[in-house]
Design goal:
10 strands; Trna Endonuclease, Chain: A, domain 1; globular; three-stranded mixed β-sheet; single chain; 299 residues; alpha/beta
Length: 299
């Protein structure tokens, strides 16, 4: 990512959640440790902590990698056992490298696991359950009716498969994860496979996906269909976003962006000072925060 992309301001639902969870965590994530080559020891430490993943998020990333590879190939997928073996081999390698601290070695850009960095005592059966859940998700994906209709589409119906995109909403850069986009009949369908169970859809996130699709393909709202697939069951959840919900989301996004820019030293240059971002008084989010080692609340 270019330096400008690292340092300029943008809005995302993930950024919004972090800002509302803890201002200091927000500062660490979006303003600190971005230039470890020229920064001091603390900047280098923060840059390493940026790359930590919780085990559930790591499992989801591995599943999404398999899904993306299948969909981007455009071909019938390999047998389930082959893809599951690929998944588990990658997870075992990641686990071993993280446990050995490879992500802390100079010049290594790999990710580490939060549980290893903070030496949490996670029983073996919990790690196995995490891997089993990932395996089950891959098998459900391969068995899903959603995959069947996608594979039956002509190549020209496959529009794009971005991990994340940025678009401009009334002058504000907004980043979303729209999902895999397909043209089906006279509609644009945005498909997400989700590991969380039960499925919890977020109205603001859904609206962001629709806003992106409307601007990208210049289509009306009724032509955009969101498809969220629950990987624990393979069930499709189809939903649309109406104009009232879209208007609410637009207002919410701009208000949220204004709140984020209020503590900045200079909103024009997106410059921030750490002392302007307080630590949360609630200890609960701290238990999952990757920046505990550098947070003044705990050091």
């Amino acid at each position: 990512m270019e330096k400008d992309a690292k340092t300029r301001f943008f809005w995302s639902r993930e950024r919004d959640f972090t800002f509302k969870t803890c201002l200091r965590q927000y500062f660490f994530r979006y303003y600190a440790g971005l230039s470890p080559q020229t920064g001091g020891p603390r900047d280098k430490e923060i840059a390493i902590l940026h790359r930590l993943n919780h085990r559930q998020d790591w499992a989801n990333e591995q599943v999404q990698r398999i899904i993306r590879a299948v969909l981007e190939s455009g071909n019938p997928p390999p047998a389930a056992d082959i893809l599951v073996q690929e998944l588990l081999t990658a997870m075992r390698a990641d686990f071993r490298d993280s446990r050995n601290g490879l992500y802390r070695q100079a010049g290594n850009a790999s990710k580490g696991l939060f549980e290893h960095e903070y030496q949490l005592k996670v029983p073996d059966h919990i790690w196995k359950e995490n891997a089993d859940r990932a395996e089950d998700a891959v098998r459900r994906f391969l068995e899903s009716e959603t995959l069947k209709w996608i594979l039956a589409l002509p190549p020209e119906a496959r529009l794009e498969s971005p991990k994340g995109v940025e678009f401009i909403l009334d002058g504000l850069p907004v980043r979303v994860r729209p999902g895999f986009a397909f043209r089906r009949d006279d509609r644009i369908e945005l498909v997400h496979w989700r590991m969380e169970s039960p499925l919890q859809l977020d109205d603001i996130e859904s609206a962001g996906r629709v806003l992106y699709a409307a601007s990208k393909w210049n289509v009306s709202l009724e032509k955009i269909q969101l498809v969220d697939v629950e990987l624990s069951t393979g069930e499709e959840h189809r939903h649309a976003v109406d104009e009232d919900a879209l208007n609410f989301a637009k207002e919410y996004i701009h208000d949220s962006a204004d709140e984020m820019q209020f503590p900045l030293d200079d909103p024009e240059t997106n410059t921030a000072a750490e002392d302007n971002f307080d630590t949360t008084e609630d200890d609960a989010p701290c238990r999952r925060c990757p920046y505990l080692k550098v947070c003044p609340k705990w050091t």
